[in-house]
Amino acid sequence: MADDYDVALLKGLAVLLHTAGVGVWRETSAYTGSERAITLDGLPQTPISAISLSAYPLADSLIDHASQVGVQVVCREPGPDPTVARATAGRVFRTLHDRTHLRLTTGLHVVQLYRQSAVSGGREADGSCRSIQNFYADVHTPPPEETNP
Predict the structure, then answer these.
(1) Strand pairing class (99-103; 109-123)
(2) Which member of 36, 74, 101, 111 has the lowest number of beta carbons within 10 Å of its beta carbon?
């Protein structure tokens, strides 16, 4: 898992949000129009109601086998009222913020997870609204297994 801890982080957070009832996470099958989709690295065309999770590296420590990873969460909701997207962002915040020593379903150990920033994402051409948050996750990244030459 050391090589793709960012994917393990995103999938584990998607499961956490799904379990909390914030949205619906599926790795392989399509979403219905009435569901709030949870996706990785981009919002889907449909459904309009969706949450996208994307990871970006911040810092890595070779000594401590730890990494700090930024997780951008984009919430999109239909209609012209921006408070609907903000309400979804609030549910994400209450689920993810201030978590410590969290073992995700993917096996990744998150030492701490907290929100660093948030901003309105504005309106899209179709009139839907976005809300964007950035969380910082400190994760334990075990070293790769050593092989003898």
Answers:
(1) antiparallel
(2) 101
**Residues in the chain where the model's pLDDT stays below 50:** 1-3
> Contacts from 23-26 at CB under 8 Å and sequence distance 24+?
23/50, 23/51
CA angle at 41 for the pair 36 and 47, rounded to the nearest 5°: 25
Distance of alpha carbon 44 from alpha carbon 100, whole angstroms: 30
List of domains in the chain:
2-140 (3.30.2000.30)
Backbone φ and ψ for 40, nearest 5 degrees, come out as -110, 135
Residue with tokens 């990785």: 40
- What is the reported pLDDT for 4? 87
Cβ atoms 38, 51 nearer than 8 A: yes
Give residue 147's pLDDT: 52
The edge-to-edge listing of strands for the beta sheet with 24-25 is 24-25, 37-40, 50-61, 66-77, 129-140, 109-123, 99-103
